[in-house]
Amino acid sequence: MANIIDGKAVSAKVKEEIAKETAAIKAKYGISIGLAVVIVGDDPASRIYVNNKKKACETVGFTSYEYALSADTTQEELLQLIDKLNKDDNVNGILVQLPLPKHLDEKAVINSISPEKDVDAFHPVNVGKIMIGEYSFLPCTPAGIMELIASTGVDIKGKECVVVGRSNIVGKPMSMLLLHKSGTVTICHSKTNDLAEHCRKADILVVAVGVPKLVTGDMIKDDAVVIDVGMNRLENGKLCGDVDFDSAKEKASFITPVPGGVGPMTIAMLMKNTLTAAKIKQGIE
Ligand code: NDP
User: Fold this and answer.
1) Nearest alpha carbon, ligand 1 atom 34
2) Where in the chain is the domain with CATH 3.40.50.720?
């Protein structure tokens, strides 16, 4: 029976450390750390994410600046706002909540954020830095997963690591971070032949697909570390992961629940990136 990885507890610890460091920076340099959160339209899920990010800012002692724009905001208006935030000294990090309404060009918007303030690490400059291992910011979800794996005490070096999913925000950067820690990494996707066979080889299995309960216990190696990134809303309103938790927990040594696993870590790492941005700007090591 697996140990359950408590994402809430690990994220609370990360936020506690950030709060201490933020207070020390405020006391020493007399500066406040600011995160600007931009939301366009009224998607209810995005609204919840933005509120959670604002709450996290309060917890760690950052100032949050919310820009809630109407769904008919034009590309030019949005780019003008980002330009203003890029130049605003009170703003250390800029986050544009995705997805954007269909008439807006998401790529152009991401590319317009200054890489120094790109705390989501989606800008091509930051993506490139992750590839060569010389990064300031790590993308929040993969970075949070690395903290969760570290919390198990399992050493990634030499392990068979299988990542299911190859999105730009989770699967691809996740694979890179595992590779940087000397894991032997396989990336699976929708065209992979025999997904189960690959999963069964994994000492560390990260599943980021968006298909409820795609990975079942019979696809998991004995004593594997299983990280479930999936957040699928079922018809009954409940959240469900990409891993069938009940059967998987019988095989794994460690497993993340949904909710309460990866989700809370993503926001904690956003706070960490904002702190890093402020430290770099202030010249703090
Ligand atoms: P995307 O839809 O961008 O990517 C999904 C990936 O899964 C693709 O690479 C796709 O392959 C692959 N895939 C789809 N079906 C299968 C299948 N049957 N077998 C193998 N691979 C498959 O999703 P994201 O990466 O953005 O998100 C994945 C999940 O993680 C979602 O549930 C999302 O809600 C959740 N998530 C959770 C976060 C958190 O903080 N907890 C943060 C971000 C995401 P292909 O490339 O071939 O199409």
Assistant:
1) 231
2) 140-263
97 is catalytic: yes
Which tens digit of pLDDT belongs to each residue from 141-161?
999 999 999 999 999 999 999
Q: Specify whether 181 is catalytic.
A: no
Look at the chain and count its residues. 285
Read off the pLDDT of each residue in 89-111 and give the average, rounded to a whole number.
Answer: 97
Q: Which CATH number applies to 30-114?
A: 3.40.50.10860
CA–CA gap between residue 187 and residue 248 (Å, rounded) = 20
Q: Which atom of ligand 1 is nearest to the CA of 241?
A: 32
Residue with tokens 């709060």: 19
Inform me whether the pLDDT recorded for 125 exceeds 90.
Answer: yes
**Residue 101 C-alpha to ligand 1 middle, in angstroms?**
20
Q: Which CATH class is domain 140-263?
A: alpha beta
Query: Is residue 246 flagged as an active site residue?
Result: no
Listed in order, the ranges of the chain carrying CATH 3.40.50.10860 are: 30-114
Pairwise CA distance, residues 25 & 60, whole Å: 12
Which listed residue (118, 120, 242, 244) is catalytic?
A: 120
For 182-216, the pLDDT digits (tens) are 999 999 999 999 999 999 999 999 999 999 999 99
- Percentage with pLDDT > 90 across the chain: 98
The active-site residue, picked from 15, 97, 118, 159, is: 97
Which residue's CA is minimally distant from atom 4 of ligand 1? Answer: 167
